[in-house]
Amino acid sequence: MVTGGTGLVGQGIEEWVSTDPTAQAEEEYIFLSSKDGNLLNMAECRAIFEKHAPTHVIHLAAKVGGLFNNLKYKVEFYRENMLINDNVMECCRIYKVQKLVSCLSTCVFPDKTTYPIDETMVHAGPPHSSNEGYAYAKRMIDVMNRCYRDEYGCNFTSVIPTNIYGKHDNFSIDGGHVIPGLIHKCFLAEKNGTPFTIWGSGSPLRQFIYNVDLGALMVWVLRSYDSVDPIILSVGEEDEVSIADAARMVAKGMAYSGEVVFDTTKADGQFKKTASNARLRALRPDFKFTPMAQGLAETCAWFKANSAVARG
Ligand code: NDP
């Protein structure tokens, strides 16, 4: 059972599972949305677990947003994520779920740190103040995974994806993440004949993972990764790109040929968050990531075809 199954990550899992022979032949997947029940509410959460009786859970449902929303709504990001996570974890204990995989984020890592960041550093100092509500709520998933294991023997773990992009994202310009925001802005720039304006200097560096690649890796974690310790799911350090380069790839993917402008009056956020994928690479040396230009081209094509119905 996948909570938050209609979101960017859930849809990546669904797309990958639809192509995987083992999943098709031997597994049954249920993708939930908020319409199946509000996970902020324990009674509704329990009703979901009673209805579906899941053996395995991938927990994605969360209040998610970009830098600007995180800055503005710290209390809501903390409270809603704490409530959702508490309800889902406790139901996994009550209903004897065999394995729970939850989703952290690289935002959880300390602001002042050495690079590359790795899984041992989750609690090694305060997160960046811009997203501390979200980051502390996410850190508590890792704390509680260990508590549930120690006290109840639960098989809970978590993954830490870097920045994710793909079809079915939230393409909101004000409240969304960087790639979908860039795609939407580029689309409007082309349509209105206005410049394609990137917020900030374009110099921050990020690692981006395509949601279908993340889907493949999350199902592998569910099946085969049995440690309570989180695992970073990311492209390598050598594949880090600047926001400016990502914007240029978006412009190419959108076939935009107009002017590209950087609005340096807008905040940049953390300069870099370089994460090591050594733990993943030791276990999955074979895994091939989709090249970013290809993933972005597919995402841009999807947005062009679905701009009327896409979120945001
Ligand atoms: P989305 O915002 O795309 O999707 C969120 C999902 O959660 C939707 O299915 C939504 O349902 C559901 N949901 C939200 N609130 C509730 C609620 N109260 N009750 C039930 N369901 C709810 O999120 P993503 O796919 O981007 O993120 C998935 C996970 O990955 C999250 O835990 C997030 O923190 C993490 N993550 C995301 C990153 C990213 O770049 N996007 C980066 C790192 C981690 P509905 O469709 O009905 O609204």
Describe the structure.
The protein has 11 helices and 11 strands. By secondary structure, the protein is α/β, with parallel strands linked by helices. The chain has a single domain, classed as Rossmann fold, CATH 3.40.50. The two termini are 26 Å apart. NADPH dihydro-nicotinamide-adenine-dinucleotide phosphate binds next to helix 1 and strand 5.
Give the SSE map.
Elements: E1 2-3, H1 8-17, H2 21-26, H3 42-52, E2 56-59, H4 67-72, H5 74-94, E3 99-103, H6 132-152, E4 156-161, E5 163-165, H7 178-192, E6 196-199, E7 205-206, E8 208-210, H8 211-224, E9 231-233, E10 241-242, H9 243-253, E11 260-263, H10 278-283, H11 292-306
Bound molecules: NADPH dihydro-nicotinamide-adenine-dinucleotide phosphate.
Strand content: 5-15%
Give the name of the CATH superfamily: NAD(P)-binding Rossmann-like Domain
The assigned CATH architecture is 3-Layer(aba) Sandwich
- Give the H and E element order: EHHHEHHEHEEHEEEHEEHEHH
Helical amount:
40-55%
Mean pLDDT: 95
Poorly predicted regions: none
- Order of neighbouring strands in the sheet with most strands: 1-2-3-4-9
Based on secondary structure, the structural category is alpha/beta
**How many structurally independent domains?**
1
- CATH class identity: Alpha Beta
Major sheet description: 5 strands, parallel
Ligand roster: NADPH dihydro-nicotinamide-adenine-dinucleotide phosphate
Kindly report how far apart the N and C termini lie: 26 Å
Give the total of beta strands.
11
Quaternary organisation? single chain
The number of helical elements comes to: 11
Shape: globular
Determine Rg (CA atoms, Å): 19 Å
CATH topology: Rossmann fold
Family: Belongs to the NAD(P)-dependent epimerase/dehydratase family. Fucose synthase subfamily.
Keywords: Isomerase, NADP, Oxidoreductase
EC number: 1.1.1.271
GO molecular function: GDP-L-fucose synthase activity; isomerase activity
